[in-house]
């Protein structure tokens, strides 16, 4: 999803106003071709890169087309020429933020790797407020993420098949998202994120608490993901272990092959 | 958080317009005291109950003060007399929706109970779009929820102390929220929720997939929550099991007692 229809001939007209954002209106008029600086809400053309840059400065939580247009001093219509809707803009921002994700090094131990991965996702979500909320409503493009491929590669070095590696990685993300919702609520309740739990004779910090909360889930995942087993066998075993009547029995796939989501 | 400052003397003036919502403007004028029906956006007084009823009809996803005022045919100011902000209104709606949560029966097996509880939370979130998103930004009032108390009571019948029961119940909610984020994304990708995964020779429905995904997490939780142990001992064991250097060592609490969040 690169920039589309970029009108190169007009690019010299796209003023960089971000530097002067906090300095009232000190714009270099000599750079301006058609004097549109005098009409601050003119129909100057902005590039998609510029729109995205400003959108990321605003952050996902307060992102509106109006705010982008205000900061770039163009009409909302000029923004809509680059991105069709707020949702499209959000999707582009989400994709870019994810591209910046710095994965943990592989510490040479799969359990520790999953812990570090889970904490990495969680910290990323906390550092990008609105990311989980916005990315919820956008197509899951995990398989297009370069970082996700790296995670799969790391897990496959431990002997997991691609299907099992995919399930493990997706589940670790789910755990991180659940913990993110938890922290957001606690933050609303307490008004800060450095709160301390008192358990018995201990003061447990939020960082310790989160590690302790992710621990049984990650150990449970590992216990159910023997690298010697194929994905099908793991699914069969997990299904067999469900409470009786909880979900219908597994159905053989006798339909013509079709691309499943995520493939 | 019950209705505040309800002006009983004005209640007869609050017209029930919800029934005529789809029928243009057939209002019983005889019920109206000061003829404000002729001025559809007048300053008639609405009760908090009415505001909440309409807010729940709209649903959390499209909820704005403007939309509530439009449906009740009063000015936004009349709504702001009842609820201070959109956020306060959201919090009230969240609290009411949660009050309606129907918990699963205890099937007499704690593992099966946690599975049913997790699915119950997940289905509730799916049936109330916007609930997770909105409740993320409101103080966690779990301990004030009647339904949450019932969950704790059920778990304590299995021998768990209140602290361990609380951790189990909170973790099951976290798992459900993580799965909710997952489904929302899959829905965005595929455009429907009845999608089928093809794993080996099986067609796995979304319902089966979700049960299979929650399975290792719930089993992991149970494995780490021996009812014979006190919460402190469980925390100590989980902390000891973390990768070396992942979080700082547990600190003794030698400060003066203070109320921790959630107590």
UniProtKB/TrEMBL annotation, chains A, B:
InterPro entries associated with the record: DNA-bd_HTH_TetR-type_CS, Homeodomain-like_sf, HTH_TetR, Tet_transcr_reg_TetR-rel_C_sf
Keyword DNA-binding: yes
Every HTH tetR-type domain range: 41-101
DNA-binding region: 64-83
PROSITE patterns: HTH_TETR_1 (PS01081), HTH_TETR_2 (PS50977)
Domain of life: Bacteria
UniProt KW keywords: DNA-binding
GO MF terms held by the record: DNA binding
Protein name: Transcriptional regulator, TetR family
Organism: Corynebacterium spheniscorum
Taxonomic lineage of the native organism: Bacteria, Bacillati, Actinomycetota, Actinomycetes, Mycobacteriales
């Amino acid at each position: 999803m690169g920039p589309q229809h970029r009108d190169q001939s007009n690019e010299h007209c796209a003023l960089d106003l971000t530097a002067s954002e906090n300095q009232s209106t000190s714009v270099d008029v000599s750079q301006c071709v058609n004097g549109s600086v005098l009409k601050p809400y003119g129909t100057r053309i902005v590039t998609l890169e510029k729109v995205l840059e400003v959108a990321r400065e605003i952050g996902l939580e307060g992102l509106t087309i109006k705010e982008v247009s205000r900061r770039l001093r163009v009409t909302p219509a000029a923004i809509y020429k680059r991105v069709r809707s707020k949702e499209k803009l959000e999707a582009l921002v989400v994709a870019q933020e994810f591209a910046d994700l710095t994965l943990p090094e592989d510490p040479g131990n799969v359990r520790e790797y999953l812990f570090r991965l889970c904490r990495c996702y969680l910290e990323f979500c906390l550092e990008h407020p609105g990311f989980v909320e916005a990315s919820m409503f956008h197509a899951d493009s995990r398989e297009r993420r370069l970082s996700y491929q790296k995670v799969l590669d790391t897990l496959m070095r431990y002997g997991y098949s691609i299907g099992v590696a995919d399930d493990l990685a997706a589940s670790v993300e789910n755990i991180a998202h659940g913990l993110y919702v938890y922290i957001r609520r606690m933050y609303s309740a307490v008004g800060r994120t450095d709160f301390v739990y008192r358990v018995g004779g201990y003061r447990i910090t939020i960082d310790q608490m989160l590690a302790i909360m992710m621990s049984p889930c990650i150990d449970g995942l590992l216990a159910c993901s023997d690298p010697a087993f194929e994905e099908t066998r793991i699914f069969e075993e997990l299904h067999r272990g469900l409470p009786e009547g909880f979900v219908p029995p597994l159905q053989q796939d006798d339909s013509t092959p079709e691309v499943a989501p995520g493939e």
